[in-house]
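Hi V.,

You were right to ask for the full record rather than a summary. Here it is.
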Amino acid sequence: MPFAQLKHRALISVSGPDAEIFLQNILTTDLEALAAGEAKPGALLTPQGKILFDFLISRAGENSFRLECRADISDDFMRRLMLYKLRAKVEIAKVDQGLVTVAWGSDSTTSQFGSTPVADARFRDASVTRCYGGTAEGGDPAAWQALRIAHGIAESGSDYPLGEAFPHDVLLDETGGVGFRKGCYVGQEVVSRMQHRGTARRRVLIVSAEQPLPASGAELTVSGRPVGTLGTSATTAGLAIARIDRVKAALDAGQPIMAGDVTVSLTIPAWAKFTFPLETVGPQDSVGAEEA
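Predicted structure:
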């Protein structure tokens, strides 16, 4: 079974009698729909609805949850959770020896990677397991990045900066990372309005090219005008967050989409439900208009 040890990830434990209601009231994920043995994506938002912290959340026992996030933001994430704690009966702590390993495929077991394997719910058409506390070393991080690219799974840092993206931008609305039937949480009003009005225009797309792609952060342009930004890239494949209305306008007009001096193709992840707009953008929102 192919695997990769993710040394840039950390684990935060939230436990106690009020753990579930505490997290349910501040995070985008609907914990009532979180089954044992699965890890769902989620976010803690700003009041304006933008992603302040992203993570994967899974149950770690009765009244206990495990939040897996980037190691470099874990301390800030813990401090932010503590700000919301108030009088809630919860304990928030960094998990010692929180080794994270991801494995995929179905030709073997995951026992060598840890005692608490959980299914990564972001992958709709692949078997991906995250394992915590194991001793496996190394693996193939490049193959993991390639798998993530192929399935259109974006993560903060490599694909978008925190504080600038809405949940819809990074497909949390389609990967189980947003509960639209749960009660209020931080930033909920903005996210619900985007969902009900169908106004999400920035989306994760899969990038392919016949030449090596430039580094992450390169602009995607049409006739020199921006339509999106390149995220994770691995040789000739990558991810981008782009304005799907402007991409559609370029496709309809037969205009090449460029990443630096490389011509690229942009496709919607196969599992995603969103589509390119049926109508091209009007003059007031053309390829050269300001980003919304």
